[in-house]
């Protein structure tokens, strides 16, 4: 019995959420007395794979096959399940990222495993039964899910478990997968990535703006503030509905749920649907000219004032802080 | 083209979420239920693809009779017929098995789900369905076009997008951008009453997991208001008190 943790990369670089998954897998292994092994699929350099050792994982299984250079849901799920079976892993851990959401149910179904997706904490273990917390009702509640099967798949919510360094030496072992033609029926034609932007689901700091910004032409100061902080940008639903910003930036109940360390909401009143998607943020700062805006009720810090007056000053204040 | 749309019946987005039975069950008292917003997108896309006699749209829901108004709304929007699997939707694995059981017999070209449900926030059904039916499943689709037997899907990835092609049959989890949700018109509402709504009995599915209990997130403290003339104070607090910068 052992634990397999799938480590995601983006164009060969391991993701921030991967380090969180590795630390989580190490912590679960410490709880169960098992060994955790990492699985990498795709073209990742040995230097990059060696980083796995920084988080206490001693072995990486490397699958580097021409057919698997780009992420194909079905094929990756087959490889993860095959490796899990071949090494007798009873627990598979992966990130509840955009690709992880596609993978987790397929891997669980292949293994006949119980699936806990969106996990936000370590399991409480009582023999075969594990209890794992996850957010439900778009962050309005936390559920404790009980997994009864011996085989388990856990998809960890990004930003919910801190990556902890615990350096060990790493061995890398190659694995040649057996793929069925059916696994490779999806053809990736094009990948467009905004390389200069911080990924919203993984961001530690998110700067978000709403209708108070009055129009898309006023977003330059939001981007500048995000740039100073190394943050991702986001927006409220009315803003993406109006086409001021892309849908991918919409956070809230029917958009992306985020849980950064710091969420700065500018010119967003705080409708219940928006709050649902962001209330898991560790610290919330609200800037709004309406002192009665509902967002102030859930904020840690607030400034009552006009965004066009406050944000430029805030940019200067953060710049001064960075320079000191 | 035969299209199946999977519908989830969820609490309205403004609902206050509470629990009963010692926090072991969701309190549905006074809750207004709606079609899961992402499923509305799936339904709108299906109706659009089938327009002009190019296909048929069946909606399926796993749940009790109380969900029938939601199913009728989907018929009013333009689905041709509906199936309700008469069971409490225990979890995504149970739901996916019921849908897969029905879909196996019917041979659909395209199965659409929402990217996730807004109640349990699982994005599991589409992946489970893909695996149970041995067909590709694509999560978080932002655009979907069908050209005879091939689909082109634009999928959201972290920090960007990906365009892929895949032969039908497939399962796609739809998100904003795929289609604009449709509002039923009076004619649609009238015709929905006469459209077939079949009730099927569930198949047995082993219980792999269950929710043991719920809690509401801890309340946040009082907001600390900072005078707009003292913006540097906010930066100091974020550094020294909140420790987030």
TrEMBL record, chain A:
Q: What are the Electron transfer flavoprotein alpha/beta-subunit N-terminal domain coordinates in residue numbering? A: 3-188
Record key words, sorted:
Electron transport, Transport
- InterPro entries, sorted: DHS-like_NAD/FAD-binding_dom, ETF_a/b_N, ETF_a/FixB, ETF_asu_C, Rossmann-like_a/b/a_fold
UniProt similarity note = Belongs to the ETF alpha-subunit/FixB family.
Q: Which PANTHER family match?
A: ELECTRON TRANSFER FLAVOPROTEIN ALPHA, ELECTRON TRANSFER FLAVOPROTEIN SUBUNIT ALPHA, MITOCHONDRIAL
What is this protein identified as?
A: Electron transfer flavoprotein subunit alpha/FixB family protein
UniProtKB/TrEMBL annotation, chain B:
Sorted alphabetically, which keywords does the UniProt record give? Electron transport, Transport
SMART domains cross-referenced by the UniProt entry: ETF (SM00893)
Is the Transport keyword given for this protein?
yes
Q: Ranges for the Electron transfer flavoprotein alpha/beta-subunit N-terminal domain?
A: 23-209
Q: Which Pfam families match?
A: ETF (PF01012)
| Family annotation (InterPro entries) | ETF_a/b_N (IPR014730), ETF_b (IPR012255), ETF_beta_N (IPR033948), Rossmann-like_a/b/a_fold (IPR014729)
State if Transport is listed as a keyword: yes
Q: Which domain of life is it from?
A: Bacteria
Q: Which family does it belong to?
A: Belongs to the ETF beta-subunit/FixA family.
The name on file for this protein is Electron transfer flavoprotein subunit beta
Organism of provenance: Sphingobacterium oryzagri
């Amino acid at each position: 019995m052992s634990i397999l943790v799938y480590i995601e990369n983006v164009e060969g670089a391991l993701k921030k959420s991967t380090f969180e998954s590795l630390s989580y897998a190490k912590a679960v292994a410490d709880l169960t007395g098992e060994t955790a092994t990492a699985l990498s699929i795709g073209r990742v350099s040995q230097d990059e794979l060696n980083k796995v050792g920084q988080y206490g994982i001693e072995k990486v299984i490397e699958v580097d096959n021409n057919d698997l250079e780009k992420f194909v849901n079905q094929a990756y799920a087959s490889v993860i399940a095959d490796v899990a079976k071949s090494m007798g892993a009873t627990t598979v851990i992966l990130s509840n990222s955009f690709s992880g959401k596609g993978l987790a149910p397929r891997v669980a179904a292949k293994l006949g495993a119980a699936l806990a997706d969106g996990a936000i904490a370590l399991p409480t273990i009582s023999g075969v039964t594990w209890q794992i917390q996850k957010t439900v009702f778009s962050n309005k509640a936390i559920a404790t899910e009980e997994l009864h099967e011996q085989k388990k798949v856990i998809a960890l919510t990004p930003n919910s478990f801190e990556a902890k360094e615990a350096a060990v030496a790493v061995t890398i072992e190659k694995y040649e997968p057996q793929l069925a033609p059916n696994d490779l029926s999806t053809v990736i034609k094009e990948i467009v990535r905004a390389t200069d932007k911080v990924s919203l689901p993984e961001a530690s700091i998110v700067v978000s703006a709403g209708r108070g910004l009055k129009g898309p032409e006023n977003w330059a100061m939001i981007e500048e503030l995000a740039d100073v902080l190394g943050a991702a940008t986001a927006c409220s639903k009315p803003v993406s509905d109006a086409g001021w910003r892309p849908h991918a930036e919409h956070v809230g109940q029917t958009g992306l749920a985020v849980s950064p360390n710091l969420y700065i909401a500018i010119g967003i009143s705080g409708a219940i649907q928006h709050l649902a998607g962001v209330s898991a943020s560790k610290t919330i700062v609200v800037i709004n000219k309406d002192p009665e805006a509902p967002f102030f009720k859930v904020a840690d810090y607030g400034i009552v004032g006009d965004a066009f007056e406050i944000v430029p000053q805030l940019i200067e204040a953060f710049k001064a802080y960075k320079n000191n | 083209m035969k299209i199946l749309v999977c519908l989830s019946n969820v609490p309205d987005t403004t609902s206050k979420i509470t629990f009963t039975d010692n926090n072991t069950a969701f309190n549905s008292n006074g809750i207004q239920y709606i079609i899961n917003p992402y499923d509305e997108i799936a339904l709108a896309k299906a109706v659009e693809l089938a327009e002009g006699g190019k296909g048929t749209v069946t909606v399926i829901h796993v749940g009790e009779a109380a969900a029938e108004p939601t199913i009728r709304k989907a018929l009013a929007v333009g689905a041709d017929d509906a199936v309700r699997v008469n069971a409490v939707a225990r979890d995504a694995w149970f739901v996916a098995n019921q849908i897969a059981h029905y879909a196996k017999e019917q041979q659909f070209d395209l199965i659409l789900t929402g990217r996730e449900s807004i109640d349990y926030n699982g994005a599991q059904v589409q992946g489970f369905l893909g695996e149970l039916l041995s067909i590709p499943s694509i999560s978080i689709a932002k655009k979907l076009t069908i050209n005879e037997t091939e689909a082109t899907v634009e999928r959201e990835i972290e920090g960007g997008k990906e365009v892929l092609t895949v032969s039908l049959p497939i399962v796609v989890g739809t998100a904003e951008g795929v289609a604009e949700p449709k509002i039923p018109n009076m004619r649609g509402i009238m015709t929905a009453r006469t459209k077939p709504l079949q009730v099927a009995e569930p198949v047995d599915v082993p219980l792999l997991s269950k929710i043991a209990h719920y809690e509401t997130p801890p309340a946040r403290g009082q907001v600390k208001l900072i005078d707009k003339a003292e913006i540097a104070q906010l930066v100091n607090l974020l550094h020294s008190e909140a420790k987030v910068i």
